[in-house]
Amino acid sequence: MDELIQVFQTTGFLNFTWGNLLMISAGLVFIYLAITKEFEPLLLVPIGFGIILGNIPGIAAQGLGVTSEGSVLSYLYFGVSKGVYPSLIFLGIGAMTDFSTLIANPKLILLGAAAQFGIFATFIGSILLGFDILEAASIGIIGGADGPTSIYLSSKLAPHLVGPIALAAYSYMSLVPVIQPPIMRLLTTQKERLIRMKPPRVVSKREKIFFPLVAFLVTALIAPGSVVLLAMLFLGNLLKESGVTERLAGSARTVMVDVVTILIGLTVGAKTTADIFLTKQALGIFLLGAVSFSVATAAGVIFAKVLNLFLKSKINPLIGNAGVSAVPASARVSHQVGQKYDRSNYLLMHAMAPNVAGVVGSAVAAGVLLGIFGN
Fold first, then answer.
1. d(CA 270, CA 279)
2. CB under 8 Å to 127, separation ≥6 — which residues?
């Protein structure tokens, strides 16, 4: 009988709580949305499964949890806590990103810059809600809809908040098709949605090769704090565009980024346990993330409308939403919303310009915040 009692005490049933049930249900919802609605399944499936894993009662007591020293999950989580996984993901993003539209129409980088307003607005809002300045800086990056950058910055400034911040950032990245379209329609007129943009000029191979080199030097000098992320992003792009390292570029944008995505999703999810997430502070981060992402989307659309006051060749403001760094999800949303009003209007390539600018912009913003508050 004593042995049977001991066996029962090692199971998860004994210490199962309502918090565990709620978080496991949330993990199942993530998986459901990924499979049935196809909301960023590459992110939500590993994150959702990780949430279920992390909330199995008893794994921490047996030394198997993310925070248990020497456990497998703690070793895998090392890549999150030390910023290794975000850097590798940026390498993969660079290897799969085409900067041609941005090179052809450089003024669209302003839309990516405008969308970063959400970061600094949320930074101020976080301070007003009682977060300290390091926590506020980490929370603000959620507004860029950039999961890797959010993890990278919070691991440096507020490591105790990496789980909730990462979960919020990736959640809003996956919900881009739900959150952005109503804001875009609210802030634009029928006439503006029908604007046709001129096809971008053809960009030469030489321009494509020089761009990552020049862009890295400029952005790294502006924000040395984000030099690792920027270096990996532009190295990946140089591997892609050089024409002599396609094998390396192919590995970076396929096998490597897929493996890292699995590991980062699983471990971030496993870190989001009931005792960490079901707190006033963590729920506040989730709320601030929604506000931040909405502000960033609105800022990009509004700034496109402002630019049109000074331009002869007008910009369709529907591409302003793509200033956030959810690549290429927000660019697809620009195109899909535009198609609802004019089936022959193709906005995807135009939207990719502010979209990739947003990736660079969020990394630069993180570097600025890290440079100010990192010491």
1. 16
2. 133, 136
- 242 touches 221 (CB < 8 A): no
Gap between the terminal Cα atoms of the chain: 58
How far apart are the C-alpha atoms of 137 and 228, rounded to whole Å?
A: 19
Per-residue HEC secondary structure of 169-206 comes to HHHHHHCHHHHHHHHHHHHCCHHHHCCCCCCCCCCCHH
Q: What length is written for the chain?
A: 375
Residue that has been written with the tokens 């959702």 in this structure: 48
Long-range contacts of 310-314 (CB under 8 A, 24+ apart): 311/107, 313/197, 313/198, 314/195, 314/197
Give residue-wise pLDDT tens across range 311-338.
988 999 999 999 988 888 899 999 999 9
Element spanning 36, H or E? helix 18-36
State how far the alpha carbon of 332 is from the alpha carbons of 178, 248, 329, 338, in Å.
12, 27, 5, 10
Q: What does DSSP assign to residue 70?
A: T
Tokens of 304: 């496109």
> What confidence score (pLDDT) does residue 15 get?
74
Q: Break the chain into its structural domains and give their ranges.
A: 83-373
DSSP at 74: H
Contact indicator for 300, 111 with CB cutoff of 8 Å: yes
Specify whether the CB–CB gap between 352 and 328 falls below 8 A. Answer: yes
Per-residue pLDDT at 189 exceeds 90: yes
CA distances from 311 to 72, 326, 335, 351 (A): 56, 27, 22, 17
Name the more confident of 253 and 147. Answer: 253
**Contact indicator for 23, 269 with CB cutoff of 8 Å:** no
Give the DSSP per-residue string, 154-165: HHHH-GGGHHHH
Q: Residue type at 50?
A: G
Which structure tokens are listed for 228?
A: 């690792």
For the record, the structure tokens of 185 come out as 């329609």
What sign for the dihedral angle of Cα 262, 240, 199, 145? positive
Q: What pTM was computed for the model? A: 0.89
